[in-house]
Amino acid sequence: MSAPTQRPKVTEREARQVAEAAREQDWRRPSFAKELFLGRFRLDLIHPHPLPSEEDVRRGEAFLAKLRAFCETRIDGRLIEREARIPDEVVTGLKELGAFGMKIDTKYGGLGLTQVYYNRALALVGSASPAIGALLSAHQSIGVPQPLKIFGTQEQRDTYLPRLARTDISAFLLTEPDVGSDPARLATTAVPDGDDTYVIDGVKLWTTNGVVADLLVVMARVPKSEGHRGGITAFVVEADSPGITVEHRNAFMGLRGLENGLTRFHGVRVPAANRIGPEGAGLKIALTTLNTGRLSLPAMCVGAGKWALKIAREWSAVREQWGKPVALHEAVGTKISFIAATTFALEAVVDLSSQMADEDRNDIRIEAALAKLYGSEMGCLIADELVQIRGGRGYETADSLAARGERAVPAEQLLRDLRINRIFEGSTEIMHLLIAREAVDAHLAVAGDIIDPEKSLGDKAKAGARAGGFYARWLPKLVAGPGQLPNAYAEFGALATHLRYVERTSRKLARSTFYAMSRWQGRMELKQAFLGRIVDIGAELFAMSAACVRAELMRSTGDHGREAHALADAFCRQSRLRVEELFGRLWANTDDVDRRVVDGVLAGRFDWLEAGVVDPSDDGPWIADATPGPSAQENVHRTIP
Q1: In sequence order, what E strands does 174-308 have?
Q2: What average pLDDT does the segment 83-106 reach?
Q3: What's the angle, vertex CA 170, arms to CA 166 and CA 174, rounded to 5?
Q4: Across residues 129-140, what is the average pLDDT?
């Protein structure tokens, strides 16, 4: 029997405990980024740059060639933008091509591509239509295939993966109208009915692919009862099950072809055999899936950067102002340099992280999160700079340009389409906190009990002893290192100076983190602006490392090595300026002033500042009612043949 949903009442501490319990607690394999935040520059973990096998390259390149031909002949990105829908025949063609099974093993009918080539495929197809990139990514990066690959039973894999490789589309359903990055308040329930069935009730929002999906991964809360440990749990659900209604297809500022909806569950019966993993493991499954799944977004940002560079180069060479091409004016030239250097670095970050994921020798949870954070932020900056380089034409739509007889360049669409990446799959703010938590894990492991108000004096004393031993060994190592030796990393040639900077700066970053923990202790978690800057510095250091390693790989293989070194050098010089600014803002900032202003805004002391405008938004609740029950709406779900 289904039960009415009561939205859980949780405190801030309880919400953190739920998130903490879902974390992967152990570090069984080395992590370059984790070591970087601890002041240990483990270049040996990423250099020499790992490479795919010859067979992986052969299969990957063969598929990319087919996909490129499909993109050039079958995908009309402007049509998708105009009609806000991917034509059924395009989706069918992608199924026939095997694009929905890129990451699924060949024994289940998939292509079995590596993470490297999966990401390159997303970058390629995303350049033709970002909406198609999102469709394929949501299906394989966070949809049904990846959770089943990692956590599913053999019977579940045998049942669903062949369908997902060729015919079925999947979606991931976690978010609810009043639940975003705080899953502790998840209200959708899965109530056991006997030993072999659950009954799901609730409402899910922003279900990417949900409008056209055949299979769903649904996160629902199982009530704790006799024989049931309860907790947030993952289920595979057939999208045409009785009681499922797609009540609305959402529309956004970008990704106009995205099949994203609002889905209601009322008395939906799901076999217990469809549960993925044990009860209560849903969030851990979701987070583990995202460890590599997050790489799909920065991969498409790489594709966007490549296209932006192409347009910037072609346009700025022919557009003349004051007697010479605009590219030769320094104000424009610096933007082109930023686009080129940053695109090179983004590709280095994504390829390195992806190859590390394929080899499975390193723990890449921080690397993948940094790639997502850095790629989404830098991708938006690249798109914004392209619009600025194009001027008024950058703000004009492609169809309008074509109607006037000019080349239809969708620069403004790129800016709109990329903006969601700073929100998708963990907003920038949440990524800062997630990465910061992982970055200070070693500190909390030895000293966490000292600042935990619920720990006894005995526990605190033991933690103090552990911390004393750890820091007695660790702190002296932050004083000096290879970054202070003039000949360190000499095999990198002119780039060695940047690697020495990364080594020195990683130690400075670790010292800054330690000082902050000593200063604020238990209040450290409230210093979100500070933690964000710490993470941003780490992201820049990771990107510099990846860029140098990639450039050296290209030099050693004779593949545009000189040009790659020039781009890596330019990127590192630009990045170092950003790092120095971030360090300055660690301690000299307006954080306290900002908090006082926020208090004043919320208290209504600045209401007078809002006078003189009209509010064009309609009346209505900020968050729609999501009370469980039968749907009163037409089902807008559609099946693509």
Answers
A1: 189-192, 197-208, 215-222, 231-238, 244-249, 260-271, 275-276
A2: 97
A3: 165
A4: 97
> In 3D, which of 532, 192, 550 has the Cα closest to residue 345?
550
List, for residues 459-475, the tens digit of each pLDDT value.
778 777 877 888 888 88
Cβ atoms of residues 175 and 183 within 8 Å = no
Please name the amino acid found at residue 223.
P
Distance CA 258, CA 169 (A): 13
- Between vectors from CA 5 to CA 3 and to CA 11, what angle results, nearest 5°? 135
Give the contacts of 600 (CB within 8 A, at least 6 positions apart). Answer: 606
Find where tokens 């025949």 sit. 89
Question: Is residue 86 a contact partner of residue 132, using CB atoms and an 8 Å limit?
Answer: yes
In percent, how much of the chain has pLDDT > 70? 95
Amino acid 19: pLDDT = 66
The string of pLDDT tens digits covering residues 235-257 is 999 999 999 999 999 999 999 99
**116 Cα distance to chain centroid:** 16
Read off the pLDDT of residues 349-387 as tens digits, 9 standing for 90 and up. Answer: 999 999 999 998 899 999 999 999 999 999 999 999 999
Q: Is 267 helix (H, G, I), strand (E, B) or coil?
A: strand
Are the CB atoms for 463 and 522 separated by under 8 Å?
no
Amino acid (1-letter code) at residue 44: D
The 8-class DSSP code of residue 184 comes to G
Q: Which residues are catalytic?
A: 425
C-alpha of 355 from chain center: 17
C-alpha distances (whole Å) from 273 to each of 2, 104, 233, 241, 284 are: 18, 21, 13, 15, 19
* Per-residue pLDDT tens over the stretch 521-554: 778 888 999 999 999 999 999 999 999 999 999 9
Q: How many angstroms separate the CA atoms of 520 and 176, rounded? A: 34
Helix-strand-coil split of the chain, %, nearest 5: 60, 10, 30
Residue 589 has pLDDT above 50, yes or no: yes
Burial status of residue 328 (CB atoms within 10 A of its CB: 0-12, 13-18, 19 or more): middle
C-alpha–C-alpha distance, residues 571 and 342, integer Å: 6
CB 233 within 8 A of CB 190: yes
Name the pairing type of β-strands 215-222 and 231-238.
antiparallel
Position 3 scores a pLDDT of: 41
Tokens of 588: 């000299």
Measured from the Cβ of residue 573, the count of other Cβ atoms closer than 10 Å reads: 15
Find the helix or strand (DSSP H, E) in which 75 lies: none
